Amino acid sequence: MSDTTREVPPPIRLEAWSDRDLGLLRRKNAPEMTDHLGGPEPEEKVLSRHDRYTAMSAGPATEGRMFKVVLDGTGETVGSVGYWPRIEQGEPVYETGYGILPEFRGRGLAVAALRAVVAEARAAGGRRELHAYPSVGHAASNATCRAAGFALAGEVEFEYPPGTWIRSNDWWTDVGGPGDGVSPAAS
After folding, report:
1. pTM of the full predicted structure?
2. Which residues contact 44 (CB under 8 A, 6 or more apart)?
């Protein structure tokens, strides 16, 4: 890239999850979207997840948010991203999850969505760190975390879905909420 050329982030926006987004959740439940997450969930779990996502959008931002990722200009829904509270090594943190539909991959949309959700978690306050836990074998998701500015804390055993343990990388970033400011890698 030359000194006069600047990288422009993909034009996306985040919209709060709503009752209208069940179709997106069903699309994201396809085998190609869940191969690193234990596979597709049964319909009753999809409906339960949708109810949780909708409730998150109606509650306080400090308790998390789920968003659909929308491409500016066209208004096309390209995926989802969110954050929610969790306890990591005895400390309150936020966790994030994201997914871009296959036909929209390779455009930098996941990185843009992850950066946007960092800003949302930062604005919410409440937690100092935001963590992502992609499977160690999911090269694209790990590259997304790196490109979005997350730091690698190391490998962890992560339970997802409940009852299934996977080897994951723990990526994190500071979102400026309360906390001691010590990185997981330093502890």
Report:
1. 0.87
2. none
**pLDDT number for residue 2:** 47
Alpha helices in 61-170 (DSSP H): 109-124, 139-147
List the structure tokens of 164: 């299934």
Per the CB < 8 A criterion, the answer to whether 85 and 118 are in contact is: no
Per DSSP, the residues of 10-67 read: --EEEEE--GGGHHHHHHHTSHHHHTTTTSPPPHHHHHHHHHHHHHHHHS-GGG-EEE
The Cα 133–Cα 112 span in angstroms is: 18
| Burial per residue of 123-151, b for 16 or more beta-carbon CB atoms within 10 angstroms, e otherwise | ebebbbbbbbbbbbebeebbebbeebebe
Domains of the chain (ranges; CATH) run: 12-174 (3.40.630.30)
d(CA 67, CA 56) in angstroms, rounded, equals 10
3-state secondary structure of 185: coil
Task: Give the chain's mean pLDDT.
Answer: 88
Rounded Cα–Cα distance for residues 121 and 60 (Å): 12
Could you report the per-residue pLDDT of 147-178, keeping only the tens digit for each?
Answer: 999 999 999 998 877 787 889 999 999 998 65
For the cut 80, the answer to whether the pLDDT of residue 7 exceeds it is no
